[in-house]
Design a protein that fits this description.
The structure is a single chain. By secondary structure, the protein is α+β, with helices and mostly antiparallel strands. The protein has two domains: 312 residues, Aminopeptidase (3-Layer(aba) Sandwich); 122 residues, Alpha-Beta Plaits (2-Layer Sandwich). The protein is built from twelve helices and 20 strands. The chain has a six-stranded mixed β-sheet, with helices on one face. A hairpin with a 2-residue loop joins β5 and β6.
């Protein structure tokens, strides 16, 4: 059965291979750990479900509305991007996002204790809750110039794609549903989360999924661009700041004191040797020393030396095993450094966890993933399943049906000052997210 798709959707079907490749390359380059694989065929019942939704006049009207109001979507993306929002500094952007949700219309809207923005749109039955979310924060410090520049067809600004596009997508979907009067069986939560990036450590979504948090039965994170990816697998990570501390002193006069920098070197060596053995077999696992520092001058024994370590694995068990190797390597380095000191007190070791993201996966045969696969193919794109580190990590690790999707268009150079976004058939990506959301939330026949 062929559907009365819009002109840009028809163009996407014809050019899908080109855009799929562009989007996939962007995801591979800028979503660390993502391993794309072609999705299996969806079961017939889910294909039929999607066909029925696509024939719904209200949904067809919403698709057309998203195209007509693309300039408004882009305005949201630009204006929200131009509000600085580093992790732990998202308040101003959160207030603006809340104001826009309230202006579009929801039944309730609020900012929770962690700083997340939530807007509740009640369904006709209310026995389930589906959430759709973009993250408010960026990786950039508060003083970063986030002014959006347009060069030809390309928008440049830190955070313009990650996750200015996600926030704009959430608003566009709410706008379209309200305009066309689309009701859903399930309640829908429209969310802007805090702390997705870096040392934010998913604090916003962890707060949402705390034991006494709001009910969420299924979760969509819209993060970045593209229209082919379905991230149903979570890449877990542990991050530590390691500090060796001692009295410090003159490089000549105090020679013989335990040296924190030397201990740090031993720690890196042991981590590398022991980590190599640990990661040579089993599920894919990684480790790296990403930052080091310490000392006051070239002719001083430093009073402290530090490093930050990142470990990742597709398996929670393997991640924990690598963590144990790391802990052993640090303890061994401390022991050796103290054994060879000739004078003064022993070194002290401080190991502080600064990041903990869980692993997990939602299997392709789970109904939510099946709906996403069926919706993608019905719209003429080849869905790619993948693994990455996003807000979806937390609910995925809990077994809650969850995924991360792109918000359409093409982007690149994420987490850099020259990050860019090209609105190449951007509405199509939003249409796909809307269709997947409605399939999971359920649309009564009268809508």
């Amino acid at each position: 059965m062929r559907h009365p798709l819009s002109p840009s959707t028809v163009w996407i079907r014809a050019q899908g291979g080109v855009l799929s490749i562009l989007s996939l390359l962007f995801l591979l380059a800028h979503a660390p750990g993502l391993e794309a694989q072609t999705a299996p065929e969806a079961e017939a019942r889910f294909q039929e479900e999607i066909e029925s939704l696509l024939s719904n006049p209200a949904i067809q009207a919403a698709f057309a509305f998203l195209e007509r109001t693309d300039e408004e979507t882009m305005r949201d993306q630009v204006e929200l991007t131009e509000i600085p929002a580093p992790p732990f500094g998202e308040e101003v952007r959160a207030q603006e996002f809340l104001a826009r949700i309230e202006a579009l219309g929801v039944d309730e809207a609020w900012i929770d204790a962690e700083g997340n923005v939530l807007g509740l749109r009640r369904g006709t039955e209310g026995d389930r809750v589906v959430a759709i979310s973009g993250h408010l924060d960026t990786v950039f410090p508060i003083e970063t110039d986030v002014t959006v520049r347009m060069v030809g067809d390309t928008l440049f600004a830190p955070g313009i794609a990650d996750d200015g596009r996600g926030l704009a997508t959430v608003l566009a979907i709410l706008r379209a549903m309200n305009e066309e009067g689309i009701r859903t069986r399930a309640d829908i939560l429209f969310i802007g989360t805090v702390g997705e990036e870096g040392l934010g450590d998913l604090r916003g979504v962890k707060h949402l999924f705390r034991p006494d948090g709001p009910r969420i039965d299924a979760f969509i994170s819209v993060d970045g661009t593209g229209e082919t990816g379905i991230t149903n697998m979570a890449l877990g990570s542990h991050r530590y700041r390691v500090t060796f501390e001692g009295p410090g002193g003159h490089s000549w006069g105090a020679f013989g004191l335990a040296n924190p920098a030397h201990a740090l070197g031993r720690a890196m060596r042991h981590l590398d040797e022991m980590g190599h053995l640990q990661t040579s077999q089993g599920p894919r696992t990684s480790y790296t020393v990403g930052r080091i520092g310490g000392g006051t001058s070239v002719n001083s024994i430093p009073f402290e030396a530090w490093m930050e370590v990142d470990m990742r694995s597709e398996s929670q068990e393997s991640l924990q095993a690598m963590d144990s190797v790391f802990q052993s390597a640090m303890a061994l380095a401390l022991e050796e450094a103290n054994e060879i000191r000739r004078d003064g007190p022993p070194l002290r070791l401080n190991v502080e966890m600064i990041g903990n993201r869980p692993s997990g996966d939602i299997p392709p045969d789970q109904p939510f993933i099946q709906r996403a696969i069926a919706a993608s193919r019905a719209l003429g794109v080849e869905p790619q399943l993948g693994r990455s580190s996003t807000d979806s990590n937390v609910p995925i690790s809990m077994g809650i049906p969850s995924m991360t999707l792109g918000g359409g268009g093409v982007g690149g150079r994420a987490h850099s000052l020259d990050e860019f976004y090209i609105n190449r058939d951007g509405p199509f990506g939003i249409q796909r997210v809307l269709l997947i959301l409605l399939a999971e939330a359920g649309v009564p026949p009268t809508s």
